[in-house]
Amino acid sequence: MGQYSKALSFYEKTLEIQQNTFPSNHPELATTYNNIGLVYDHMGDYSKALACYEKTTEIRQKTLPSNHPNLASSYNNIGSVYQTMGAYPKALSYLEKTLEIQQKTLPPNHPDLATTFNNIGWVCHSMGEYSKALVYLDKSLQIRQASLPSYHPHLANTYNTIGLVYNSIGDYSKALSYYEKTLDIFQKTLPIDHPSHAETYNNIGSVYQTMGDYSKALSYYEKTLGIREKILPSNHPSHAETYNNIGSVYQDMGDYSKALSFYEKTLEIREKTLPPNHPDIAITYNNIGLIYNSMGEYSKALSYYEKTLQIQQKSLPSIHPALADTYNNIGRVHSSMNDYLNTISYYKKALQIQQVVLPFNHPSLATTYNNIGRTHAAREHYAFALQYYQNALKIQENVLPSNHPSLAETYNNVGEMYRLTGDCLTAQQYYDKTLKIQEEVLPPNHPSLATTYSNIGQVYYAMKKYERALSYLEKTLKIQSISFPSNHPSLARSYYNMATILKGLHRYEDAVAHISQAVNIISNSIEPNYSQVEKYQEYLSELSAISSGEKVHKKTISEQWTYPVLFVLSSLEESQDEEQLAVQWILDMASNCRISGNQYIEAGDKDTACEHFQREFFDFMATPNTRVLTLLDPDNKHDWCDTQFNNKIFIRFIDSHLCHNHICTYIINQEMDGHFFFPDTQLELIMHWPPEHSDTRKYIYCRDQTSIKSIRETYGRCIAHKIFPADDLAFEIGHVQVALLRLLAKQAPEESPQRDEIASKAIEELECLSHMLKQMMTDQISEQPVEHN
User: Fewer CB within 10 Å, N or C, the chain?
Assistant: First the structure.
């Protein structure tokens, strides 16, 4: 910055002398105005640069013939400023004036013609007219190949520009090829620490970054930095560019803290060396805003975007494409904040600028259409979203090669709309198009491939093809584990998706392992998203409960003598398959009831515990599963308390140390079925039960009491609680439910007029049981110890 100020001071002194010495249209004045314009151009003060270039042109138009080379030079400088300011049509107009003069006055293979063709190619590239850009750049290349030695630096510059175009159209192999030609020339003609080497390494790094090969990208950017640190002062603007690029790689890798650190280094240099309204400072503010947006710090992101906007509104025309980019970024922040009205407003501002200054099929328009589409998708306006995605697709299919990554992104967006509207087959077709492009042009471990594999997996999940879904999510995780740091949020999301699929496959322990990984990653990420942390932790609790229930179920199946209902089932003469189905149903129901209740007890949430259990219990009670009755006794051959339940089996209750509440539950089942039969030998055994079973004995001898409600009325709540402890009662609901269903089926077939009456009695019993459980839960929760800090 200091050198520019000194240069400007000397040129202004020169101008002052010339203005006092020469007439106002003297050619020397034109030269000095041109030099002052060049300084302002380098300082980023484009309006002042343009004013000086226009004064130069005005003098030369008056004093030189219309086809003079110096006029061509003036037109070229004005065109260059308009290009930098984003006024591409004006830039193209002045560069074409330059070309017209040169084609009349210079031989067809003159180097200046090659330079102008190169500059026009640059403008066409900026306008998104890549095929035109390549035509002009090819003309530049032909002249330079014919007129210059094969290792001339100007040839390298043309190769470099062609590489930029191929990078923009997504042909990364060709881009690398041209950059390598550039590098080859520089390595043979320039010293190893020449700035041109640094620039070429920088461009190669950019290609690898776009390809998702972040380690190679960093390697080339570090080579750039190494050269520049040797030959440039520590606050040189080129260092800022390198720091910026390294920061962008860390941003892509999800390492936002490192990215922010490098962007802040960039900003520090630029604020020291550039005027406060320089566009490069605006770019840095913009990048810092992107980081804060990714970190979920939306107010900070907006603050930096507003700084960007303030500079751009002062230093750029009101319809500059860079302004459109900033409006797009501000829109994205509002989208992240679910402020969709503001989101749409900013996206439309971006669109209005782009529709004025860009050709109708410019790729940046497609980007904005995609952004608007995403906003409508977030609002579940899928038809509108699809329309904007198709607008983007129409542009991209016309101007981009068929394997361009941006096309793949839009195919993905369209596929997402079809998936969300339930058209999984069409969604899959678009995802397949996405995948075809990405597998062709991206390296095998590119993060975008991982995203597509994940999306295809989600389609298969929606179609309940869990095994195929799992295979695609495994591909996703494999890539992300290679491409991202171990605490990247995308890894957490993939582990979460894997858990949902494993749940669908009933692989509950594996599901718990994966959701645990997700919780661990998201909790330890650089900037945790706490809403995501909470979501994943809730899902972990849910899956852990299901997994625990599954373990109980398996254990119970292997120890069939644990619960009285299994004794009854074992005495039936049905096939093993029917018996197993019945057992599984009862155990599933019982374990689920107990788990859902205990979850909230353990959490200390008294009200939710009671409400949750009561809701779940009555939902179940309201939809009796008559299929279970058929499984238990398809031919109605057995009474619920059949005498086959004999002394030998009964004794095994005692020998296996079955707790008294289980026996009472069995007795309740008998009572509800209209029987209360015990052989004398069994009564004799009961008389010798230990003292802790005294309340149970009282109930057994009280043969005129026929319900749980009666127990409470006769002996009080305390004894009822002892007979049915809260931690076991929930498990026994399944047994009581089966007994009630059996009673209903045996005594009141569907056509029976007594069915409603008997059903009412059954419901009354279950209501009593539920109320009793709720009361016991309340007591149990109130007795739990309180943790103190």
Answer: C
> What per-residue string of b and e applies to 1-29 under the rule 16 or more CB within 10 Å gives b?
eeebeebbeebeebbeebeeeeeeeeeeb
Evaluate whether 254 touches 488 at the Cβ level (below 8 Å).
Answer: yes
Give the integer Cα–Cα distance in Å for 50 and 60. 15
Is 140:120 a contact under the CB 8 Å cutoff?
A: no
Q: What distances in angstroms separate CA 321 from CA 80, 83, 88, 300, one per listed residue?
A: 16, 11, 10, 23
What amino acid occupies position 536? Y
| Tokens representing residue 158 in the block | 């043309």
Please state, rounded to an integer, the average pLDDT across all residues of the chain. 76
- In three-state secondary structure terms, 563 is coil
List pLDDT tens digits, range 172-224. Answer: 889 999 999 999 999 999 999 898 999 999 999 999 988 878 889 999 999 99
Among 119, 109, 102, 106, CA closest to 157? 119
- Tell which residue, 46, 134, 38, 41, has the closest CA to residue 85: 46
> 265-269, 375-379, 588-592: lowest mean pLDDT where?
588-592
Please check whether residue 153 is in contact with residue 186, taking contact to mean a CB–CB distance below 8 angstroms.
yes
* CB contact at 8 A, 546 and 552: no
As given in the structure block, the two tokens for residue 457 are: 């997996």
The DSSP string of 3-42 is HHHHHHHHHHHHHHHHHHHS-TT-HHHHHHHHHHHHHHHH
Q: What is the phi-psi region of residue 543: left when phi exceeds 0, alpha when psi lies from -120 to 50, beta otherwise? A: alpha
pLDDT for 591 equals: 44
- Give 415's pLDDT tier (boundaries 50, 70, 90): very high
Whole-angstrom distance, CA of residue 198 vs CA of residue 194: 7
Q: What whole-number distance in Å separates Cα of residue 343 and Cα of residue 325?
A: 13
Q: At what angle do helices 530-558 and 489-504 cross, to 10 degrees?
A: 30
| DSSP string across 103-159 | HHHS-TT-HHHHHHHHHHHHHHHHTT-HHHHHHHHHHHHHHHHHHS-TT-HHHHHHH
Tokens of 36: 């002052």
Closest CA to 742 of 645, 650, 668: 668
Neighbours of 305 (CB within 10 A): 27
Task: Give residue 662's identity as a one-letter amino acid code.
Answer: H
Return d(Cα 668, Cα 675) in angstroms, integer: 10
| SS3 (DSSP) at 644 | coil
447: pLDDT confidence band, cut at 50, 70 and 90? confident
Q: Which residues contact 576 (CB under 8 A, 6 or more apart)?
A: none
Residue linked to tokens 């309940």:
464
Asked whether the whole model's pTM tops 0.90, one would answer: no
Cα–Cα distance measured from residue 91 to residue 68, given in angstroms and rounded to the nearest whole number: 20
Q: Can you tell me the distance from the alpha carbon of 667 to that of 653, in angstroms, rounded to the nearest whole number?
A: 13
Alpha helix positions (H), 484-563: 489-504, 508-523, 530-558
Comparing 197-206, 462-471, 691-700, which segment has the lowest mean pLDDT?
691-700
pLDDT of the residue at 588: 47
Contact at 8 Å (CB) between 712 and 773?
A: no
Which helix H or strand E contains 571, and what residues bound it? helix 564-571
Structure tokens at 440: 């062709």
How many CB atoms are closer than 10 A to CB 658? 17
- What domains are defined for the chain? 1-105 (1.25.40.10), 276-358 (1.25.40.10), 468-557 (1.25.40.10), 559-783 (no CATH)
Contact assessment for residue 203 and residue 179, using Cβ atoms and an 8 Å cutoff: yes
Residue in the block written with tokens 């004013």: 51
**Contact of 193 with 225, CB cutoff 8 Å:** no
| Residue that the structure tokens 């509800």 belong to | 672
